Amino acid sequence: MTDFTPTPLPAAVRHELCAAAAAFLDGLDDDRRRRAQYPLDGPARRDWHYFPRLDQPGLRLAEMDGPQREVARRLLRTALSERGLAKAEAIMRLETLVRRMEEESVYHPDNYSFAVFGQPSDDTPWGWRIDGHHLSLTMVATPDGDLTVTPHFMGANPAEVHGGDLDGTRPLAEEMDRAFGLLDGLDQGERAQAIIADRSMGDILTGPAASPLWRLPKGWRRRICPRPGARASCGWSQLTPTACAPTWRSVSWRGCGRRGSSGCTSPGPVR
C-alpha cells in the first residue's frame, strides 16, 4: 500500500471535538445514552455499513428530539472540514429523493445514527461514528493527537440530480471529475489494463462483509483475482508522467476532508 505521513490533529480542534462528543452524550437521557455509547474495543465499533438499516449501533436522528439533533449535528460540523460537511449533508439530503424512487421508508435523512465509543477525553483513546445510507464515518482520537478516520465511506445515488428541488446536486462531484480525468489521461495501453470490464459490477466489492467475488462472472473474477504473480490493473510505475499527477490527486484528495487536516503528502514507497 502507499505510505502516507499522518497529520496530527491540532490541539484546539481535538479539545473542541472532545467537548462536542461529551455534550452530545450529556444531552441524552439514560435510555438514549445506553443506545448511543459503546466500549471502544467492543464489537459495535466494527458493525458499520453503507446500506440503510434500522438496527445499526447508535442513536438515530429520528429518535432524538430537536435539541439533541442540533447537538449531534454540531458534532458532525466540528469533526469535518467545510468541504467534508457539505458532502455529508448533500448525501443525507439525497435520501428524500431515494425514498421516492425506491418507495421504501428506510431511506430517510433522519435514518443516520450517532454513536460514541469510549469516553471522550484528551487523555485516553475514544471515538465516534455517523452511520447510514452511503455515509459511514468512524473517527478515533488518541492522546498523542492523531485522528484516524476509518472505516470511511461516502457514496451518492444518484450521482447527479436532474430536476426537482435538488436539481444539479452532485455530492461527490470532485471525486467523479478526477476519476474521469484520470481515465482520460491514460494512453491506450494503460486504459486496456485499467478498465477490467465493459460494464459495472453492480455493487461495491469491498466493505464490512466478505467480498462477494463469487457472484461475479468468471471473466471478471479472473481480472480482479488473477493467477499468482499477475497484475489485474495498471500499476503506479506503469503510468506515464501525464497520467501520474491526476492519478495522485484522485487518490489523495479523499483523505483531506477532516477538520484540521493541512493536506496530504505525495506518495511514498509502495509496499
UniProtKB/TrEMBL annotation:
A Pfam match: DUF3500
Superkingdom classification of source: Bacteria
Protein name from the UniProt record: DUF3500 domain-containing protein
